[in-house]
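RECORD TYPE: inverse folding
INPUT: structure tokens
STRUCTURE:
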């Protein structure tokens, strides 16, 4: 991937995703988004947590979708804290960015 004449990333989409600062993103489905967002705000490994714009149902599970980004420590501490705080985690799905998403992320601030 090249931006403004510089090599920004090299390799397959999976390799580029894996090497970008050790950050991982997840689609997190919970029964109580308000409580979950409040709890995630106090979890050091949760770098960002936002209610998904397109809140809907996943395979009939229901619940709210939160986009969660965690550091190299992984998602385990965040999930344990949510469950300990009484939030039911309905599903946790790794978010796979598209090639366009990665390009925009890598070239952000390059202007």
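DESIGNED SEQUENCE:
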């Amino acid at each position: 991937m090249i931006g403004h004449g510089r090599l920004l990333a090299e390799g397959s989409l999976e390799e580029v995703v894996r090497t970008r600062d050790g950050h991982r993103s997840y689609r997190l489905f919970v029964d109580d988004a308000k409580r979950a967002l409040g709890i995630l705000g106090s979890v050091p490994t949760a770098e960002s947590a936002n209610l998904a714009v397109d809140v809907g149902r996943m395979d009939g599970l229901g619940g709210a979708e939160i986009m969660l980004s965690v550091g190299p420590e992984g998602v385990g501490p965040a999930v344990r804290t949510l469950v300990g705080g009484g939030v039911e985690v309905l599903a946790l799905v790794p978010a796979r960015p598209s090639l366009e998403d990665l390009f925009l992320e890598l070239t952000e601030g390059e202007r």
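NOTES: Helices lie at 13-19, 33-40, 76-84, 99-107.
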